[in-house]
């Protein structure tokens, strides 16, 4: 249960928020920084340094696992309970494509949901201590976790961009 103290800045304009985040990142504030916005905004994501979502890898692995499971399950079933019909081969791969496809979709969807929850760290059992309800209705916010001299440095950087509100707090 680690909590760090930090500073929360509230901005009216997206440009000020993005520029403040970029300057904070260039000054070395990378690990404990959180941005709040009333709606998804790709400029903030880019400024925070987010790359492509790793959830897509979960989807790929789940889909490939579903495909392998579909072919393995149908092949095993055919070999364990052979049904010879008209001299056709016992293992007939084209007939198994439908089941493999269905399991690909099923496993891909389930692993996407699982990956989303794991990568988003959901559910969040501990709420943020530092939050402003205005972030849901139009303002942008930046929380920077720092102590001592780093807190003063973060405060001076944030003040350059004229925040509406600047306050200290703790983030759990």
Description:
By secondary structure, the protein is of the alpha+beta class. The chain has 2 domains: 94 residues, Alpha-Beta Plaits (2-Layer Sandwich); 65 residues, no CATH class. The chain contains 5 helices and 4 strands, in the order E-H-E-H-H-H-E-H-E. Helix 1 runs parallel beside helix 2. It has a 4-stranded antiparallel β-sheet. The longest helix is centred in the middle third of the chain and has 27 residues.
Secondary-structure blueprint:
Layout: E1 4-11, H1 14-26, E2 33-36, H2 42-48, H3 55-80, H4 93-119, E3 140-145, H5 149-160, E4 165-171
Helix pairs in contact: 1-2, 3-4
List keywords for this structure.
49% helix; four-stranded antiparallel sheet; 172 residues; 2 domains; rod-shaped; Alpha-Beta Plaits; alpha+beta
Order of helices and strands: EHEHHHEHE
Strand count, sense and closure of the main sheet?
4 strands, antiparallel
Average pLDDT reading: 91
* CATH topology (level 3) name of the largest domain: Alpha-Beta Plaits
Highest CATH level, the class of the largest domain: Alpha Beta
Report the β-strand fraction as a percent range. 5-15%
The total tally of domains equals 2
Short description:
With 172 residues, the protein is α+β, with helices and mostly antiparallel strands. The chain has helices spanning 14-26, 42-48, 55-80, 93-119, 149-160, and strands spanning 4-11, 33-36, 140-145, 165-171.
């Amino acid at each position: 249960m680690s909590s760090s103290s930090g500073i929360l800045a509230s901005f009216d304009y997206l440009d000020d928020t993005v520029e403040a985040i970029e300057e904070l990142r260039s000054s070395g504030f990378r690990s404990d920084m959180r941005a709040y916005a009333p709606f998804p905004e790709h400029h903030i994501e880019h400024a925070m340094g987010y790359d492509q979502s790793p959830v897509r890898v979960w989807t790929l692995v789940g889909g490939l696992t579903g495909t392998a499971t579909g072919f393995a399950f149908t092949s095993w079933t055919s070999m364990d309970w052979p049904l010879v019909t008209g001299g056709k081969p016992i293992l007939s791969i084209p007939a198994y494509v439908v089941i493999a496809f269905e399991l690909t979709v099923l496993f891909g969807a389930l692993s996407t949901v699982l990956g989303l929850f794991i990568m988003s760290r959901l559910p969040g059992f501990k709420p943020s201590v530092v939050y402003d309800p205005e972030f849901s209705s139009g303002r942008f916010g930046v929380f920077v976790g720092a102590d001592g001299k780093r807190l003063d440095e973060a405060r001076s950087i944030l003040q350059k961009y004229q925040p509406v509100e600047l306050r200290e707090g703790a983030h759990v």
